[in-house]
Structure prediction request, 190 residues.
Amino acid sequence: MAAAREWEKLSAGFLRSVESTLLVILAAGFGLWVLAIPTASILFEHGAFGSQQSVDVGTTLQAYLWGLPAAAMIGLLARVRQSRGELKGTAMAAVAVIPLNLVLDVILLPSLGAVGAGYATAAALTLQVILLCYGLSALRIRPKMNFSKWMRLPLPGIAGGVVAFALGQSQSPDFQHSVFGLLASVALGV
Prediction:
């Protein structure tokens, strides 16, 4: 579409890609956020790796998950910008967020540990999305966003996460931390 100079089609295709990606990423992210600790328990809780380590891994995963939508958006934004021949801004946005990530790591790691690194990365990725969005209109990429539609994108993920969480909470701890319990929670959430 960019090669054919079909700017409206490019903008509409980009918007559809963003919406469908966010729909899937938000649903997967909510589900994984809810099931992070049981998943860590099932995968790693063997030998010297105990329940406290499962909680630590799960909460660290939850912190990194806040950056998952931004990480998905970065790929889409970089590709649409590159389709217009714009490479410098994409690279500069990636480099510009490194200091933020490092500063936040220095601030958050002493008090939060690995969880702080997750939040620092999520914040840096979010800033990178903002930087990549800047200047899209100059590249003739002007998606016509429907705010009410965007507000509904997280709803399936929230509903699935609530159902998976409710199933886990309604059962015994043995069920919550079993392969069958995890699979049942995932299936019901889906």
